[in-house]
Write a structure and sequence with these properties.
Shape: globular
Number of strands: 11
Number of domains: 2
Radius of gyration: 21 Å
Order of helices and strands: HEEEEHEEHEHHHEEEHEHH
CATH class of the largest domain: Alpha Beta
CATH superfamily of the largest domain: Bira Bifunctional Protein, Domain 2
Largest sheet: 8 strands, mixed
Number of helices: 9
Strand content: 15-25%
CATH topology of the largest domain: BirA Bifunctional Protein, domain 2
Oligomer: single chain
Length: 335
């Protein structure tokens, strides 16, 4: 009879194998990109890990551990790679708290050329079906099986928080709704900050959990590299929740270099307030010359996916060496 550790190792390996086989069978090329980088994409909400390169000559150069492989995968797309995917090690700094975070984690990222964010729902549903057919999980299949439930962010705010987001596109209007609900906001507060507080307080905890949920069309005022939905205040973005746990983040990728250049400039100001301020690829917008393919990109947390399939409540149930245990072991050796 296999030991618990052996069972975990086999499940771990099966997940990776099934994911790779799934994408390869659909014509996606697997890629391998750098983990250390001298600059990152504009992502102001993410704290990162800094390192340093010591050259034989000249001054040391700061480097950062990539929070995702996006920067390099988009360079491959610009070079004509076609559909690609990667299972990478990714890193995010700061203590986010809770059982669903680990500073080092496995990330599945894939890009589909000639498709938009809604087509990525189909691919993700097919991936879930493949994993269920393989027997990779212990959670009841009814809680994981497609079709996924779909809910627009605007509808979620209206139904779960009683807020009409479309009518609250100015900060004072959204702050007034927060006050009505008894939430005290810092002064000054940005629209984005107010949105996140309201979402985390009133919407996310109340999301349906009976089957996987696609939460569609995030506010365009939350800066990302997702394309704006024409004629609306929303972006072509969705996130996947399983049992209340956020698993994936998906965009129709913005390919307009002017829009991406604005995002890079705006991020420079935000970076000044980051605890781990890092260099941003100032030439990021130039990765998108005329002819850059329309595409959808998806980032899915593999450890979290394995966790929900296994019916575990914490990443400690699937990660072989969780960071919390490593630090606990170290502190236990000190006098």
């Amino acid at each position: 009879m296999d030991s618990p550790v052996r069972e975990r190792l086999l499940r771990h390996a099966r997940f990776s194998t099934e994911i790779r086989d799934f994408f390869r069978s659909r014509g996606y090329a697997e890629v391998d990109t750098p983990v250390l980088s001298p600059w990152l994409i504009p992502e102001p909400a993410i704290e990162v890990f800094q390192s340093e390169y010591l050259p034989a000559r000249g001054a040391p150069r700061p480097l950062w551990l990539a929070p995702s492989p996006e920067l390099w995968m988009k360079r491959l797309l610009a070079s004509g790679s076609g559909n690609i995917f990667q299972l990478s090690r990714s890193f995010r700094n700061a203590d986010y708290g809770g059982p669903h975070h680990n500073p080092e984690f496995r990330l599945l990222e894939w890009y589909t050329v000639g498709a938009g964010y809604l087509q990525s729902i189909d691919v993700t549903e097919q991936l879930f079906s493949r994993l269920l057919e393989s027997g990779a999980g212990r959670r009841p299949a009814a809680e994981l099986a497609p079709p996924f439930r779909r809910l627009a962010m605007e509808e979620a705010f209206r139904e779960l928080a009683g807020i009409d987001l479309a009518k609250c596109q100015e900060t004072p209007a959204l702050a007034a709704e927060a006050s009505r609900l008894g939430v005290r906001l810092e002064d000054p507060v940005t629209w984005e900050q107010a949105f996140h507080i309201l979402f985390l307080t009133f919407v996310e905890p109340r999301l349906p959990r009976d089957r996987p949920l696609v939460l569609l069309d995030y506010p365009a005022q939350v800066p990302t590299t997702a394309r704006r939905k024409p004629g609306t205040p929303w972006s072509e973005r969705w996130e996947l929740f399983v049992g209340g746990v956020e698993i994936a983040n998906v965009y129709t990728e913005e390919t307009d270099s002017a829009a991406l250049e604005r995002l890079t400039r705006e991020e420079a100001g935000r970076r000044a307030h980051s605890r781990t301020a890092h260099a941003v690829d100032e030439g990021f917008s130039r990765v998108f010359p005329p002819g850059f393919p329309e595409c959808t990109g998806a980032a899915l947390g593999v450890d979290r996916l394995e966790m929900v399939f296994a019916g575990e409540k914490s990443l400690e149930g699937v990660i072989l060496f969780p960071f919390s245990a490593i630090l606990g072991e170290q502190s236990g050796t000190e006098d």
